[in-house]
């Protein structure tokens, strides 16, 4: 496996990896749905791969491509289009034995194909569409296409900073370590967060230009009589030599015509300029002498970039950073390009029909594809993943156009919230209660939540993938204060039914008044409900008639006119959170309602229902075990009686009878997968009725008894949430069993994984507060999350219906009232008179917002939604930058990068100067505070004019853009997840080779199904890098960790918590691989973002600081290393206190670092501190205490000796003696939020507990003393494994984090 990194698909190859490059693999037993069976070994093995020759019409005349027999011809075609030698071909077909091959057949289906066969590439006549696409492709290839200004993606979407970090290449172990500065030199631990972290690196070299301009000619479109002759479009080219050419795109190719700017003559030019070529690239090479040279230079320039950095994501929306450079900086680049406005036509044509798609039909027919073999499943899941991405993109574009008022509603006479739209075959409606459906549940608030739950339900059902059950494509988009739901149009949903017939075929028709129960839906809904733990139950319609339903009455089944069965309205798949509603829901109207929870749609999460189901199953198994034990005891009793009563002659028989049940039991044992000694759980049934407490009226006594039992089960589930799920999360965080969240997103993700709703943030904050400083970070985050979510609701209400140009005024004033109060206690809106006059009928209520009014509204919202009373001085506890980030991310704001002044105004001469001086670096640039007078490219960005009069923290110009916030319903790929899990299991069972094969297989599947740039692929890169690190495949671990960083930066965000953790792990693996300076550069970059995401002193930063200290020790920067240990200790003391074993472990490590730094007095003091704490907390007999005592004695005895030998050491240094100690402690990987590290045996290890703080030294005292004295170090002896590693800090092995 030494060349693992070479085996991993990269770049274009992975993007276009065919579904056929999948090998089958043996997995666990069983061949049910979702498992890969042994019979599927028909998938291509390596021997199915062979080299195919493709004959070309032009230079280089032929090419070789590696293919497999089950690859589709279109995959070969794609390879031709992407390879450098054959860029120019876009319009062609392939022939074999002079017979045209269809693009959509597998290679194995081509008659007579063998490894020796040759395919011939034949150039096709162009159509107008082909000609447009060829021109687009050529513009991209020759670097003439500038950055597109995209409706959906926002500014700098998909930004990657990784390639801008200054990293020293090479292996540090081979060169003297103290040569040159190290990245952490002069690191300022107290520096404020610098927003310059978000600035991309400006490259010194510009991309070579191949032409001055290439665009559509003003003579377009061709007149009718010329269309008859095969003219398609006209192109205008200005070469680097300054010559202008007009080119005709003809069905046969491209030629230079006689037209000029003021004369139209599209006939071919006479010789010697009668240039003609099938490809425009070839033609450009003929008309411009310098084109070919510059084109080659451009390809070389592009090849230097990391492939993953340059690709556009195909299956995921690229992450838009919330901070972007302003228009007055050199980072901002908007250039003149005649062809930019023409791109819409080039992509979609004049009629725009190219972009119209029947999404619903595509979704359903893709789901109906075969899925028997691995090949078919890969192909199907790959298509689905692409389809979900295309649909999400189209839906978001529709929402933006609706918000701008560019799409007319189907029902313009109705109120705004009731209006519906159809755009690009997608149906849009507002996530508000426009027609009063949710009037009794909380109105608009309830409708908004219902749409969110519906998307979650659709996602869940998509994940179940039940054959025959269809779901509409569903996406929710929050944009400028409104929520829109985009659904693919189910055939027949708008068709009026005959009198007496309803639209719905299963479930509640008009609310719950009429209930439909079409039998054909029952088997499908049963499968769905079984997976969701939904109970079959009775409901009653308005006439009191009983109906038995297998799903909630709110879940509807509809038979489309295409004959397919659709499931709609999946917002009530779990029961209501009854206990919560009884306490906090005060009705929909009246004074009480204002104080109560805003809506009645508070339901339990599916994760909680699943967790509760598992608890019930454990209880069932335990009860069965007890029954079995009792039965066995009775059997034994009877056997004893028989034995006593019978004569000696029967003894032999009775012994046999006794042995028999034991033997039977032993025979059964190996068959069972778990240790429950063969308990049969087929008799276990437990599910919840989602319609309890929602107005159902049972009639008979039996029905009432059943309803009471159902209600009790639901109450038990609610109780489980309060008494088990929440306290368990708090205790796991307090014990350091899981990685601590860094921001609101990671906290709410962690809560959701545990089945805890966000409405319990108040409980989390209160319980964390009870734990004291240990969970101070959790309390801070919970309060910050409650406030930012309250702000989102208030801001949404203010922006709803506000015209677009007024949005920046409203948002900046809101932020001034919330975060700029310290700078200007009376912020006001400076109106733009022209806009105010133009939009005279708009709601200018936001102008009246005051600081006191906003604070009161936030306190009220937090009280209503989270049952939490903010402290009186809560505003002083806000971390301004972190709060700004949370609000920006939740709302989709893109703000200008500049120094925002949150404190009291400073004298004007220092106004608006960025804290780049305070910042330790820009993008990992290790220059620090250099004495150079040359102006840095960063400094100039922030020289903004000082405003006159009372300034405010935020101006309308600071709001650069608002991007839509999207929730989609695409589910994970079952196939890729199975392969990953199978690989993990193989490694746990010590089948190393098979495990590695399965892991690579899983990686290949992820890349094929999702495309390389996708959050799921980033996560699998991270997981695999961890596993390879454990398997000691360090080069492969580094390669995968780099990819994890780049992909997560581009798809999750440059400052997402996951990206930051990926950087920290990359640093760790680089260090293990010998590139410690590179490791430090990456960690420094991550620490810069940590200050922005969380601020200072996060619990998990103790681990990172320790890692840095260890790395600096490895490079022999002992003084710097000591500083990092001291900083780590300071954070640890602030969280756990001075008397904690965690802190004592760090005293122990710091004592060693001080000894290495020749501070023997400090070393003795710190070791004494460690000894005292261990003695007090763990007792005199604990191994930690004894070891600390032993070290203390030795260090004390040597302190005097060291003083005497100080002169000796000086002399040794003069003689050039080199000191080479061993690395003191080991580094360890950073866990993902909410997970402890996992050792190779699957045992979770702590993050912030002592084991997370690095190890105590494994060397003997004598070795360290000898080093300090300057004598040669001896090879360390192997010591027996320590007992009790958890409590004493000896990490038993750094394991992977999932």
From TrEMBL:
Region of interest (Disordered), residue spans:
1-37, 626-711, 908-955, 1223-1298
User: Per the UniProt entry, what is one GO biological process?
Assistant: intracellular distribution of mitochondria
Start-end of Basic and acidic residues biased regions: 1-12, 626-672, 1256-1266
Instruction: Please give the GO cellular component terms listed in this UniProt entry.
Output: cytoplasm
Please list the residue ranges that the record marks as compositionally biased, kind Polar residues.
16-30, 1224-1238
Q: Which CDD domains is this protein grouped with?
A: CLU-central (cd15466)
| Location of this chain's protein in the cell | Cytoplasm
Q: Where are the compositionally biased (Basic residues) regions?
A: 1276-1289
Instruction: Enumerate the spans annotated as Clu domain.
Output: 332-581
What the entry lists under InterPro entries is as follows: CLU-central, CLU_dom, CLU_N, CLU_prot, GSKIP_dom, GSKIP_dom_sf, TPR-like_helical_dom_sf
Which terms in the Gene Ontology molecular function aspect does this entry carry? mRNA binding
Which terms are listed as keywords in the entry?
Cytoplasm, RNA-binding, TPR repeat
Query: Pfam families per the record?
Result: CLU, CLU_N, eIF3_p135, GSKIP_dom, TPR_10, TPR_12
The free-text function statement in the UniProt record for this protein reads: mRNA-binding protein involved in proper cytoplasmic distribution of mitochondria.
Protein family according to the UniProt entry? Belongs to the CLU family.
Q: How does it assemble?
A: May associate with the eukaryotic translation initiation factor 3 (eIF-3) complex.
- Name of the protein in question: Clustered mitochondria protein homolog
Which species is the source of this protein? Tuber aestivum
Gene for this chain:
CLU1
């Amino acid at each position: 496996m030494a060349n693992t990194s070479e085996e991993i698909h990269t770049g274009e190859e992975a993007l276009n990896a065919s579904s056929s490059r999948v090998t089958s693999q043996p997995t666990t037993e069983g061949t049910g749905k979702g498992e890969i069976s042994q019979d599927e070994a028909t998938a291509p093995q390596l021997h199915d791969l062979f080299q195919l020759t493709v004959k070309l019409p032009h230079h280089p005349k032929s090419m070789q491509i590696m293919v497999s027999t089950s690859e589709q011809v279109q995959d070969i075609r794609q390879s031709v289009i992407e390879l450098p030698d054959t860029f120019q071909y876009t319009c062609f077909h392939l022939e074999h034995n002079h017979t045209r091959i269809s693009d959509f057949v597998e290679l194995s289906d081509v008659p007579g194909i063998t490894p020796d066969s040759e395919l011939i590439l034949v150039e096709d006549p162009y159509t107008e569409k082909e000609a447009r696409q060829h021109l687009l492709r050529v513009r991209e290839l020759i670097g003439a296409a500038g950055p597109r200004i995209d409706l959906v993606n926002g500014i700098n979407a998909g930004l990657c900073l990784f390639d801008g970090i200054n990293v020293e290449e090479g292996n540090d172990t081979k060169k003297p370590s103290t040569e040159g500065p190290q990245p952490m030199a002069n690191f300022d631990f107290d520096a404020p967060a610098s927003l310059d972290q978000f600035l991309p690196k400006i490259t010194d070299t510009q991309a070579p230009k191949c032409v001055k301009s290439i665009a559509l000619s003003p003579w377009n479109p061709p007149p009718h009589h010329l269309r008859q002759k095969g003219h398609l479009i006209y192109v205008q080219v200005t070469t680097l030599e300054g010559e202008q050419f007009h080119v005709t795109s003809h069905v046969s190719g491209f030629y230079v015509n006689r037209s000029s700017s003021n004369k139209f003559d599209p006939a071919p030019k006479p010789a010697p300029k009668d240039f003609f070529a099938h490809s425009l690239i070839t033609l450009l090479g003929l008309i411009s002498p310098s084109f070919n040279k510059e084109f080659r230079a451009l390809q070389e320039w592009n090849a230097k970039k990391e492939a993953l950095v340059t690709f556009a994501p195909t299956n995921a929306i690229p992450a838009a950073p919330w901070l972007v450079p302003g228009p007055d900086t050199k980072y901002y680049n908007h250039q003149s390009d005649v062809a930019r406005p023409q791109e819409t036509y080039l992509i979609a044509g004049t009629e725009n029909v190219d972009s119209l798609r029947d999404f619903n039909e595509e979704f359903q027919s893709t789901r109906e594809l075969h899925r028997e073999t691995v090949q078919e499943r890969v192909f199907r899941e790959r298509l689905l993943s692409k389809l979900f991405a295309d649909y999400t993109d189209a839906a978001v574009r529709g929402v933006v156009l609706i918000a701008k008022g560019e799409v007319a509603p189907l029902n313009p006479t109705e109120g705004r919230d009731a209006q519906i739209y159809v755009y690009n075959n997608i149906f849009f409606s507002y996530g508000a209660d426009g027609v009063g459906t949710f009037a009794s549940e909380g109105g608009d608030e309830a409708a908004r939540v219902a749409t969110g739950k519906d998307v979650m339900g659709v996602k869940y059902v998509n994940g179940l993938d039940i054959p025959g059950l269809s779901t509409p494509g569903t996406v929710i988009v929050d944009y400028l204060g409104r929520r829109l739901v985009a659904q693919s149009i189910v055939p027949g949903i708008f068709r009026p039914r005959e009198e007496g017939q309803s639209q719905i075929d299963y479930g509640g028709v008009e609310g719950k008044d009429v209930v439909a129960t079409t039998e054909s839906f029952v088997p499908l809904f049963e499968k769905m409900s079984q997976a969701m733990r939904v109970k079959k139950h009775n409901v009653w319609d308005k006439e009191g008639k009983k109906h038995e339903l297998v799903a909630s009455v709110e879940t509807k089944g509809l038979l489309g006119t295409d004959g397919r069965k659709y499931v709609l309205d999946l917002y009530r798949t779990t029961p209501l959170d009854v206990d919560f509603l009884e306490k906090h829901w005060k009705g929909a109207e009246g004074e009480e309602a204002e104080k109560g929870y805003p809506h009645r749609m508070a339901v339990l999460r599916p994760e909680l229902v699943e967790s509760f189901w598992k608890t019930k199953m454990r209880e069932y198994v335990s009860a069965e075990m007890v029954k079995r034990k009792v039965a066995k005891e009775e059997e034994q009793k009877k056997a004893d009686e028989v034995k006593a009563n019978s004569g000696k002659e029967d003894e032999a028989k009775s012994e046999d009878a006794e042995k028999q049940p034991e033997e039977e039991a032993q025979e059964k044992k190996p068959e069972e997968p778990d240790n429950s000694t063969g308990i049969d759980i087929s008799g276990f049934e437990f599910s919840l009725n989602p319609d309890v407490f929602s107005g159902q009226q049972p009639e008979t006594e039996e029905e009432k008894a059943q309803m009471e039992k159902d209600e009790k089960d639901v109450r038990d589930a609610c109780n489980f949430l309060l008494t088990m799920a929440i306290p368990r999360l708090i205790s796991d965080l307090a014990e350091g069993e899981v990685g601590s969240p860094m921001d609101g997103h990671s906290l709410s993700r962690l809560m959701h994984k545990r089945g805890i709703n966000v409405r319990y943030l108040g409980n989390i904050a209160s319980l964390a507060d009870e734990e004291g400083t240990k969970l101070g970070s959790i309390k801070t985050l919970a309060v910050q999350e409650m406030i930012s979510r309250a702000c989102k609701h208030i801001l949404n209400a203010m922006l709803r219906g506000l015209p677009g140009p007024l949005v920046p005024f409203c948002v900046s004033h809101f932020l001034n009232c919330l975060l700029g109060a310290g700078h200007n206690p009376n912020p006001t809106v400076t109106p733009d008179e022209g806009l105010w006059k133009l939009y005279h009928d708009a709601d200018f209520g936001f102008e009246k917002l005051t600081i006191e009014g906003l604070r009161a509204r936030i306190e009220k919202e937090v009280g209503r939604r989270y049952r939490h009373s903010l402290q009186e001085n809560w505003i002083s506890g806000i971390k301004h930058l972190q709060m700004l980030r949370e609000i920006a991310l939740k709302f989709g704001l893109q703000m200008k990068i500049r120094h925002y002044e949150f404190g009291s105004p400073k004298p004007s001469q220092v106004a608006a100067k960025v804290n780049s001086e305070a910042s330790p670096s820009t993008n990992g640039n290790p220059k620090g505070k250099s004495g150079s007078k040359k102006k840095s490219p960063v400094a100039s960005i922030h020289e903004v004019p000082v405003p006159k009069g009372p300034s405010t923290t935020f101006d309308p110009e600071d709001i650069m853009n608002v991007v839509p916030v999207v929730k989609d319903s695409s589910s994970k790929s079952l196939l890729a997840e199975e392969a990953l899990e199978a690989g993990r299991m193989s490694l746990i069972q010590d089948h190393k080779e098979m495990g590695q094969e399965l892991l690579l297989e899983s990686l290949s599947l992820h890349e094929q199904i999702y495309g390389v740039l996708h959050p799921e692929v980033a996560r699998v890169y991270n997981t695999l890098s961890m596993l390879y690190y454990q398997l000691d495949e360090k080069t492969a671990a580094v390669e995968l960790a780099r990819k994890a960083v780049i992909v997560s930066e581009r798809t999750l965000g440059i400052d997402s918590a996951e990206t930051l953790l990926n950087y920290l792990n990359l640093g760790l693996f680089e260090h293990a691989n010998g590139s410690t300076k590179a490791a430090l550069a990456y960690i420094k970059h991550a620490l810069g973002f940590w200050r922005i995401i969380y601020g200072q002193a996060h619990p998990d930063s103790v681990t990172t600081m320790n890692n840095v200290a260890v790395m600096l020790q490895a490079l022999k920067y002992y003084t710097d290393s000591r500083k990092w240990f001291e900083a780590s200790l300071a954070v640890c003391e602030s969280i756990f206190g001075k008397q904690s074993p965690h802190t004592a472990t760090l005293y122990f490590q710091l004592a060693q670092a001080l000894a290495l730094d020749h501070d023997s007095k400090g070393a003795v003091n710190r070791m004494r501190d460690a000894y005292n704490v261990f003695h007090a907390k763990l007792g005199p007999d604990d191994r930690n205490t004894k070891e600390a005592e032993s070290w203390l004695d030795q260090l004390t005895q040597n302190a005097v000796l060291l003083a005497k030998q100080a002169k000796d050491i000086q002399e040794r240094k003069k003689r050039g003696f080199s000191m080479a100690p061993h690395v003191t402690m080991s580094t360890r990987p950073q866990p993902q939020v909410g997970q402890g590290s996992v050792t190779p045996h699957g045992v979770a290890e702590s993050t912030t507990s002592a084991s997370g703080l690095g190890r105590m030294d494994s060397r003997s005292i004598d070795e360290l003393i000898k080093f300090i004295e300057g004598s040669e170090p001896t090879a360390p002896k192997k010591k027996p494994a320590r007992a009790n590693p958890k409590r004493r800090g000896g990490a038993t092995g750094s394991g992977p984090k999932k």
